[in-house]
Amino acid sequence: MFEKLRKKKPKERLSRRFSAVGVALSLILSFDVFSATVEPGEEGPSRFKAMGVVIPSPAPDRMDTEGDGPFDRLVVENVMLVNGLGAPPRGPVSIVISGDTIAQIVSYPPKPVPGEHRVDARGMTALPGFIDAHVHIANPYEGVVGPITPPEYVFKLWLAHGITTVRDTGSVMGLDWTVSHAARAARNEIVAPDIVPFAMFPGTSLAQFEISDEQGARDWVRAVKARGAKGVKLRGGTEEALAAVYDEAQRLGMGTASHHDQNGVYHMNVLDSARLGLDSMEHWYGLPEAMFNDRTIQDYPADYNYSDEQWRFGEAGKLWSQSAQRGTKTWQSTIDELLARDFTLVPTFTIYEANRDVMRERNAEWHEDYTLPALMRFFEPDPRLHGSYHFDWTTGMEVAWRDNFKRWMSFVNDFKNAGGRVATGSDSGFIYKVFGFGYIRELEMLQEAGFHPLEVVQAATRNGAELLGMEGDIGSISPGKRADIVLVEGNPISNFKLLYGTGHMKLNREKGIVERVGGVSYTIKDGVVYDAKALLSDVREMVSEARSGLVP
Ligand SMILES: [Zn+2]
Questions:
Q1: How far lies 390's CA from each of 55, 64, 107, 522, in Å?
Q2: What is the mean pLDDT of residues 123-141?
Q3: Which residues contact 153 (CB under 8 A, 6 or more apart)?
Q4: Integer Cα distance of 448 and 348 in angstroms
Q5: Nearest Cα to 181, choosing from 202, 152, 159?
C-alpha cells in the first residue's frame, strides 16, 4: 500500500480526510475477516497488515565475522570500573570472564593462561551493559509511508551504543515476530541485544479487538504468556479488564507496563493502576492527573480533538502546570505511595525533547550518516502517522514544554531521592529519535533532571535489571553476573556524550584542531565481543545503500 501512496501525485491525494475515511472503512470491512483468526498479541500488526503494510523480514543470522567469542577465558585488563550499583569509578582493574559469565574482578593483571584471550583496555572505562526499558523494534506506522526500518539496523545501533538488553513494550511488530527474535538473540544467533517481549493488551487503543470483561482479559494474558510474552503493555481499557490483567499477570510472574492514554486517564491514573498492581508507568501521562487538586480532568479547550496530534501534544505541554506544585502535600503523598508500592518510573524524557526544541532534533548531527531515509520521511509532519505532529509548532509551544519538563523532571528527581526506582527507556524510532542515540540522550536528560551521573548509570543498569526481575543475572559488573559490558575510551561519568556513536567534539589544543573522541569501542554481550565501530560502519552502509536506492 505504501508504494501506491508514494506514487500518488499531490493533487490526487484530494484531502487527507478522504483517505483517512478509506482507511477506516477498510479496517471496519476487514475486522470481521481478521478478528476470527488474529492470535492474542498480534492484534496491533494485524490492523496494519490489513492495510497492506509489510512487516520486515527477520534479522539475518550472525556471520562469523560479527562478534568474537564467547571465550573459555577472556581478560579485560587495565580498565576503569563503574559497577552500576553506585560505587564510584575505581581502577585500573582486570575483569576475568569465563564463557558468558563474569568470573573475577582483580586489581592487578592476572598471570597469562595458555589459550586465553586478552583485551587491553588502557584508557577505557567499563560499565555494565545498558538496559533500554522502553523500546520498539521499529513500528508499523512507518509502513504507511514507506518501508519499515529493518531489525538489523535497529539491533546494530543498539549494540553499538552499549545496549545489551531491551524491554519491548508492546511487541508492535507482532508477538510471534518479536519472541522469535528474542529466542535467537538469547542464543546469540543474531547480532542483537537480549529482548524481553511484552504483548500489547487490546484495550481501548485497539478498539476493534477490545477485551472489556474479566474472563476475556485473564484468558488473553494466559494466551500471550503461552506464546512467549514476558509481560503486558497497557494503554487503557475498562476497569474490570485492567484489574484482571494486573492480577493475572502477577499470578503468572509477568511484568506490566502502562502508558496511561489520555482517553482513559479520567478513571485510571497512575495511582489507580499502582493500587491494582502495575509495575511501571511509561512516559508521564497519568502522573500529573493523579495530583490534580483543583480539577479532575485536564483543562482541554472546549473544541479540543485528541486525534489531532499537534493539539494533543500542545495541550499536554500545559499539563504539569495544572497539577499540584512541587513540595505540596499531594506531591509528597504521591511519591510516598508509589514508593510503598515498589513502583518504577520509566520517564522516556528523550522522546518528548522535540517539543521543547524541534530544530535541535530535526537537525541532530547523526541523521546525516545514521538515519535511514524512510525513517526520516516517517518523522516528517503527517497527520496519518503517530508522533509526526510538528505541523506548525510555535515558540509558545516550546516555551510551555520547557516549563513542563522542569516540573516533570523535578518530580522524577524527588522520587529518586526518596528511594524510588527510575529506569532508563528511550522509545526511539519516533519523533526524530534514532535508536541508540536516543538512549544516550536519555542519560543526559536524567542528569539534567538532577541525577548524579552514577545515579544515571544505576537507572540505566541496576534499576532496569530490577524492573525486569533479572537483577540476579544482569545490571552490574559483579562476579557471577552475565558478561554484558560496555567499554568506552575516556570517562563517561564526566561526559555521557562520549557514548554517542558519533562521539564527542573536542578541541585538541596542541594540534589546534577539533577532533571527535569517544564512541563505544566494544560491547560485550554474553561474553561475545562486538567491535562497536564495525557495527556503526555496517549501519552507515545500510543508510547509504538506501539513499542511493531511493534517488530516482
Ligand atoms: Zn513506546
A1: 26, 44, 52, 37
A2: 97
A3: 372, 435, 539, 542
A4: 13
A5: 152
Distance from the alpha carbon of residue 119 to the mean position of ligand 1, in angstroms? 37
The residue type at 262:
Q
Q: How many angstroms does the Cα of residue 87 sit away from the middle of ligand 1? A: 31
DSSP 233-299: EE----HHHHHHHHHHHHHTT-EEEE---TTTTTT--HHHHHHHT--EEESSTTSTGGG-SS-SS--
- Pairing status of strand 504-508 against strand 513-517: antiparallel
Rounded Cα distance between 252 and 454, Å, is: 34
Spacing, Cα 164 to ligand 1 middle (Å): 18
481 C-alpha to ligand 1 centroid (Å): 29
Distance 475 CA to ligand 1 centre (A): 22
User: Does residue 340 carry a pLDDT above 60?
Assistant: yes
Q: What is the pLDDT of residues 191-241, one digit of tens each?
A: 999 999 999 999 987 888 999 999 999 999 999 999 999 999 999 999 999
Percent of the chain at pLDDT exceeding 90: 91
Q: 522 C-alpha to center of ligand 1: Å?
A: 28
Cα of 282 to ligand 1 centre, how many Å?
8
pTM of the full structure? 0.93
Closest CA to 167 of 261, 42, 255, 43: 255
Nearest to 316 by CA among 400, 406, 407: 400
In angstroms, what is the span from residue 15 Cα to ligand 1's centroid?
Answer: 29
Q: What is the mean pLDDT of residues 186-194?
A: 98
Amino acid at 541: E
Contact in structure between 441 and 351 (CB atoms under 8 Å): no
Distance 492 CA to ligand 1 centre (A): 27
Domains belonging to the chain, first-starting first, are 2-62+129-467 (3.20.20.140)
Q: Convert the pLDDT of each residue in 515-530 to its tens digit.
A: 999 999 999 999 999 9
Ligand 1 centroid vs 167 CA: distance in angstroms? 10
The DSSP 8-state label assigned to residue 482 in this structure reads B
